[in-house]
Amino acid sequence: MATLQNNHPLHIILADDGSEHAQAAVTLLTTLPLPPESLVTALRVFTPLQASEHATLQAALDRTQASFTEKGIRAETELLLGYPAEKVIEYADQHRPDLVVLGAKGLRATLGILLGGVAQQVIEYAQWPVLVVRAPFKGLNCVLLAIDGSSYSHQAAEYLCQSGKFARLPLPVSTEVHVINVLPPTPVLLPLAEPGTGMMMPVQTEEITAYQAEEEQQGQALLEPILEGLKACGVKANGTLLRGDAATEIMDYARRHQADLIVVGSRGLSEVKSWLMGSVSRKLVHYSGCSVLVARGPHP
Asked: Considering the entire predicted model, what is its pTM?
């Protein structure tokens, strides 16, 4: 991870549907120390059935633009006809943003559902980093970065610092980043009957203990360079090793530490080797009680 500061301007696409979660996304973005000349494009998509609401929707977009302008952030608006998820992804592919931001659920989302259909589709199919914001937004005091040693989780780590000549997500100076690595659960071994005797053979716990110690050593080795890189960028950071089901441990940790944001890669090493796989990222986006950033980019 690069250690030099860089003020490369960011282009952020905000999918604004007028919901409380979209408003929380606006508030979140206005608290970030964005580099000079950064641009936020507030994008609203309306369906053919909403054609008569064009003027009202544009007025709402203008208010969103004013919220950024008041904070000294350059902002533009786009009002497009089509279907929301499809148009957001299409617009992002055309403009290659540094980040796509949207609320967890829109105005018409069913009560009790943590993730709306538009957010789900954008998360699944967009090629760019996606930040799903959940209301209420109370600041970015605690950010949780989940890693698994894969190149994808390394991208997630770099997204909180500078990567090459491009700046990524600038955090407020008061933000503390908790970096966690979740190791596989401890296996439950049952004694087996010795062939021909019927006697139970003892479980070789020494071998298991030695293997787990090696896992923990490797896990700590993954944490250290990321912590060093974050600290070199001026980010307050600490690291923790956990063991168990990855998604469950991450969400439990986030609840205990009142995390405001979870940052994760889009998938891990492979379906066999990786512990933090795409399915884990998907669970975090769907079931986590806080905002989630899925950092993705070109395949390393």
From this structure: 0.85
